[in-house]
Structure formats: structure tokens, C-alpha cells
Design goal:
This protein is α/β, with parallel strands linked by helices. It has a single domain, classed as Alpha/Beta hydrolase fold, catalytic domain (Rossmann fold, 3-Layer(aba) Sandwich), CATH 3.40.50.1820. It contains eleven helices and ten strands. An eight-stranded mixed sheet has the order 1-2-4-3-5-6-9-10, sandwiched between helices. A two-stranded antiparallel ribbon has the order 7-8.
């Protein structure tokens, strides 16, 4: 029997005058509807493709989209306003802006897949975006996976440092980046867990499109937390935390986890990981943990939630 190959599709969605780039991957067999849908949301300092569909010479396991497509998922991602191939505007593309982006993309997803709900994964600023969307549109979120998440920001060394430039984030909707910046994504917490080649590929992709990113999620994380209320996120949630991740403190995330109302939840503390687990050296461990949650079988007991 021939093995189905992974196919990709590109889409464009209008949000008023803004063009939003959307990308999808799935196995290219005849079943177009009925697959489980997984939506990846990028962070503050990388757009969608380098975050989730990265291809590194000599490796075949950096694309999260390929990994989950091979498991049978219909995998989606997008560039938020001001990022990647989406329109560059004067918006600072904050968390609230991302929620509106997702609201206009979901009808396309439903049309193409036949599904009105998806499992959402967000990393860093993308975790805030994903959690905010789950809070705003609970009927469209089956499960939620948060990596590099922060709730109140208390005890975060990364955010304490970032607040030193708060006036800068408030003064402009964008912030300049250079090639060296992308190496700091890996080495700001601990240099042991990232491959510098990956950061170079990130820089190649992003700098070909522009030399700035929006400031909105930086501003939200520095001055406007908490952006979500755990009591209002009703779906099953998995929080994945790297032991060296400086974006939040253990106590901050554990309290957020404690307040989540759905008891189908997991808190995964991972050794050998800092802020960007899916793109780091121990990505195989990260993917295994996430896979176990998003493929968890349905309950069979009489008390299981219906629908």
C-alpha cells in the first residue's frame, strides 16, 4: 500500500483591509473531512512557518506540522497581523488583535475541514494568544496546549528585564531586530538546548520579509498581565514548562493550573528545556509529551461530558 504524502495548502483571509496568511498541512489521501484539527499559534518574535514548518539540513524532525500531519491531524497555522506574509500595518498586534485574527480565520477552517472546533497550541506570546481565544470563543476550542506561557508575570526574570524597555514598547508599534537577536531566543535562559543553525534559519526567513516585529505582545506581557482568567478557560488544558524557562515562575503557572476548572488537565515540567522546546535539541521529548495529550482517548464512563 502506498504511503500518503503530506500536502500543503495556502490561503488568504481578509480582516477588513488586512490580508492574513494561512497555511495548512495534512496527509494527501482522499479523506478531506473528519480529521482532528490542530491549530498552531506563533509567538512574539517568529512568524508561523519558521515556528512550525522549519526544515533544517541534516534533520527531518523540526517541522511540527509534518509530525502531527503524519499522525493524521489536519494541521493549520497563520501569520498574525504584522508578521510574516500577512499585512504589515501600524497595529502593534497585541493579544486582542490576535483573537480577532483567529475569529476571521475560523470560518475558513470550518469550510475546508468540516470541523467547527480545533485543538490549539501556542508558544510564548502565542500561548497568550491561544489562551485568550479559548476564553473568548470556548465553543471553538477542543483542547489547549500552552508552551512558554505566563499568567501574572510575577517572578519572571525575562519580563523584569523586558520592562526596562517598557517606554520603548509603548512609543512604537514595532521593534527592530537583527540577525543576532534570533540567537538570543535560544541562549537567553541557557545556551545548552538550542542549535545555532536553527536560529540562523529563523533569521534568514524573517529578515527576508522585514527587520521588525510588532510590540503588542511584548507590551501585554510587560504591563498588561494577566491577559486571561483561568476560571474562564473551560476546555482541557496542558501546560508544558521547561525547567530553565525565564518567561514565568513555577509558582505563577502552578496557581494558574490550580484554578483551571476542567479536571482534564496536565502540568508537565520538563528537564533539559528552556523557552522554545519544539525547536530545541530535546524536541523529541517535547513532542512525545504533547502527542500524549492531543491524542488522549475519550472517556467511557457514565459521568463523561457529552458533546
Amino acid at each position: 500500500m502506498a504511503v500518503a504524502r503530506i500536502v500543503g495548502s495556502e490561503y488568504w483571509v481578509k480582516k477588513r483591509s488586512v490580508d492574513l496568511y494561512v497555511f495548512r498541512k495534512r496527509l494527501g489521501d482522499t479523506a478531506q473531512h473528519g480529521r482532528r484539527v490542530l491549530f498552531f499559534i506563533h509567538g512574539s518574535s517568529l512568524s508561523a512557518i519558521p515556528s512550525y514548518d522549519l526544515h533544517v539540513p541534516g534533520h527531518n524532525d523540526y517541522s511540527m506540522m509534518d509530525y502531527f500531519a503524519e499522525l493524521g491531524f489536519d494541521v493549520w497555522t497563520m501569520d498574525h497581523e504584522g508578521y510574516g506574509r500577512s499585512s504589515r500595518t501600524d497595529s502593534n498586534s497585541d493579544v486582542a488583535c490576535a483573537v480577532e485574527d483567529l475569529k476571521v480565520v475560523m470560518p475558513l477552517l470550518t469550510k475546508e475541514t468540516g470541523q467547527s472546533r480545533a485543538t490549539f497550541f501556542g508558544q510564548s506570546g502565542g500561548a497568550l494568544r491561544a489562551a485568550a481565544f479559548a476564553q473568548a470563543c470556548p465553543d471553538q476550542v477542543d483542547r489547549l496546549v500552552l508552551d512558554g506561557f505566563v499568567w501574572t508575570g510575577r517572578g519572571s526574570p525575562t519580563l523584569a528585564k523586558r520592562r526596562e524597555r517598557l517606554a520603548e514598547w509603548r512609543a512604537s508599534p514595532t521593534r527592530k531586530v537583527d540577525r543576532a537577536f534570533f540567537q538570543t531566543i535560544f541562549n537567553r535562559d541557557h545556551p545548552a538546548f538550542g542549535d545555532p543553525t536553527v536560529a540562523e534559519l529563523w533569521a534568514d526567513y524573517e529578515l527576508a520579509l522585514g527587520d521588525s516585529f510588532p510590540t503588542g505582545t511584548y507590551l501585554d506581557m510587560s504591563a498588561n498581565l494577566p491577559a486571561v482568567a483561568p476560571e474562564k478557560i473551560t476546555c482541557p488544558v496542558q501546560i508544558i514548562r521547561g525547567e530553565f524557562d525565564g518567561i514565568a515562575s513555577d509558582d505563577d503557572l502552578i496557581e494558574f493550573f490550580r484554578r483551571l476548572p476542567n479536571k482534564d488537565k496536565q502540568f508537565c515540567m520538563m528537564a533539559g528545556q528552556a523557552h522554545v522546546g519544539p525547536q530545541a535539541i530535546n524536541r523529541h521529548r517535547f513532542l512525545q509529551v504533547m502527542r500524549s495529550f492531543v491524542t488522549l482517548p475519550e472517556r467511557r464512563d457514565a459521568l463523561a461530558p457529552k458533546g
